[in-house]
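Contributing: when you submit paired examples, paste them exactly as shown. First protein:
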Amino acid sequence: MVEIVDKLSEELNNQKPLNIQVFLNDLVGNDFNTVFKLLPSFYKQIQRKKGEGSCFIGAMPGSFYGRLFPQHSVHLVHSSYSLHWLSQVPKGLVTESGLPLNKGNIYIAKTSPSNVHEAYFIQFQKDFTNFLSMRSEEIVHCGSLVLTFICKNDEVDGCDFWELLGITLNDMAIEGLVEEAKLDKFNLPLYAPSTKELKQIIEKEGSFKLLQLETFKLKWDSNMDDNSEKEATIFDEKSKAKYIAGNMRAVQEPILVEHFGEEIMDDLFERYGKKAIEYMKNGKGIINNVVVSLSKWNKKGESWNNGKVVPV
């Protein structure tokens, strides 16, 4: 990013190099100190290329569903693989008497009733609208918002990895390794929207102009065969199972431990990895992703022409 900004600055004949200030955001429980330990080597890398420092990095802990920055202070916000996480588990997943409506599932599944689907979408709609509204306060006029997160195909959910986690937990419940009552009460606080849903929410909230929206697919093991060496490394099924399970564990374990306890984690993810390999043999194991590019616009007195704001 620094190199691209510097190159564009030179093309515009700016006499002085631009100073870039970057704020890293995550929830307050994130280990920012570990991230900060990587910064000295990063700064040295920039200095070797440029001879001086032009990038300054800090952190802004907190939920991005609330305000994080002063008004009109940010030029670019990039959210990477976070916005499918909801601010809370949706309400309305149990009956008035407390019976679980999504019994046997930990997320939206083929067997989930329609009111479960609706509850999840309502919560995502509320959260994503809040996110856009908060960022519109913080981003400068014509500033940019670039979002990358998991989505569903308009025809197929495409969230097999969560479905598979639920199946694995159900197997363990049948064997008595997980309490069925605990499993029935567990629902993941996340939602993979469709592109149609995203467009509707962006248009309704109204603070941003949608410049571009693209989807792409990744296999669960998509990074394993990427090798810079001339001879690609061939991974056996056991290695792939461990890799896929490790990726899922890194993301989901804190939530699972809080609800089910730490004792079952090794067994859970070993089982998960083995099932993942079988899923991929059957043509599953695909993650649907979306990249959205937005620009803040002034609703009063301006319109858009080929991506540029012009007076009306």
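Second protein:
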Amino acid sequence: MVLLNNEVFLNELTKLFQNARTTGSVTVTMKRYDGRKTPNPKGGLAIPNPEYKCLMRAQCHSKKISTVIEQKDVETFTNAYSNLLKTSINGLKRLKKPKKKAMAAQ
């Protein structure tokens, strides 16, 4: 997985959306990230008041990209990301939901 700068991540995500238009889909995940690369030990000392960040990952087929968003950059990144979604997600097909079986006669 490639860790990118926020602006480069958005540019690459745009390319992933364009490639996925014809074949496949793009999976985007976000989660809270405290900057640690290893988990806290069970009985160990935890970091008091860590400055949390946001880890964002995107995947299309075998290409994976990611970025870490600092607290001070969240608002600008979110605005740019929402504009990207508005322009890129315009040809979505509606998912067909499976029909529920009628309730058995009581």
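If you have annotations for the second protein, write them as plain sentences, like these:
Residues 1-36+50-74 form a domain with the Signal recognition particle alu RNA binding heterodimer, srp9/1 fold (CATH 3.30.720.10).
The chain is about 30% helix and 25% strand.
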